[in-house]
Amino acid sequence: MRASLIQIAVDEDEPVGSRRRRAAALVREQRGADLVVLPELWTTGAFAYEEFGREAEPLEGPTYETMAKAASDAGVWLHAGSIPERAASGSGSAAQDGPLYNTSLVFSPSGELAAVYRKIHRFGFDKGEAVLMGAGRDLVTVRLPGTTLGVATCYDLRFPELFRGLVDAGAETLVIPAGWPERRRAHWTLLAQARAVENQAFVLACGTAGTHAGVPQAGHSIVVDPWGEVLAEAGSAEEVLTVDLDPAKVAATREQFPALKDRVLGLEPPAQRR
């Protein structure tokens, strides 16, 4: 399986429509790959909080339409990164009144929507994404020829229980688009390798380059195998990282070192001492 991670740069002076067209052109250039991945919130920048509402779009908005066609033109499975989605409200009122989500879109090689994932863990503590966007609730997997993707986004990487859930749902390749800051790049690499080792799965972690609202991005998109070996790693600038993977390595690793079978579930904390 050939995977291409497009570590696109977010330039605040580049209009969103222009970057959308540029990203689509980069996707089309990956014809011959099996899977292409874009980063988190590459239309706005993950730290450009004031842009979330202004640039939010419905699920089947301009990014959906552009990326669906790019996937079809290239004949690839496309994880189109994530967008600020303005969901329709339940009351039937106008879409602009609905909640915001950090929403990932996955397309098939025919351009059909294969999966939607709304980010579960929102970053910011008491500000930014954590208060501006709603939280997703659903674990999402996507079956590809030869492997099953488990889908997560950026800050999700810090929560191993989410990835255990994805593995229990059949995931063998964990795909993590991100807008990770440079100042915590060491955590990015460490956590990507940890999620690969503990779940005995491939990890494809695709970040952005450039600067989001004054926050320099880490870049350094990374592909890790089920033993934790780094197969490929990008630099800090815009780059397309392409690597060939053997999906059979997941089953082989899990059979050779069957640690997942030794999980002990349902543990409870000890009773409080009186």
From TrEMBL:
Q: Which PROSITE patterns match?
A: CN_HYDROLASE, UPF0012
User: Is the keyword Hydrolase assigned to this protein?
Assistant: yes
Listed EC numbers: 3.5.1.111
Q: Which InterPro entries match?
A: C-N_Hydrolase, C-N_Hydrolase_sf, UPF0012_CS
Name the domain of life: Bacteria
Domain CN hydrolase as annotated: residue spans: 1-247
Question: Any idea which UniProt keywords this protein has?
Answer: Hydrolase
Q: Which GO terms describe its molecular function?
A: 2-oxoglutaramate amidase activity
Indicate the family of this protein.
Belongs to the carbon-nitrogen hydrolase superfamily. NIT1/NIT2 family.
Q: What is this protein called?
A: 2-oxoglutaramate amidase
Q: Which organism is it from?
A: Streptomyces cyanogenus
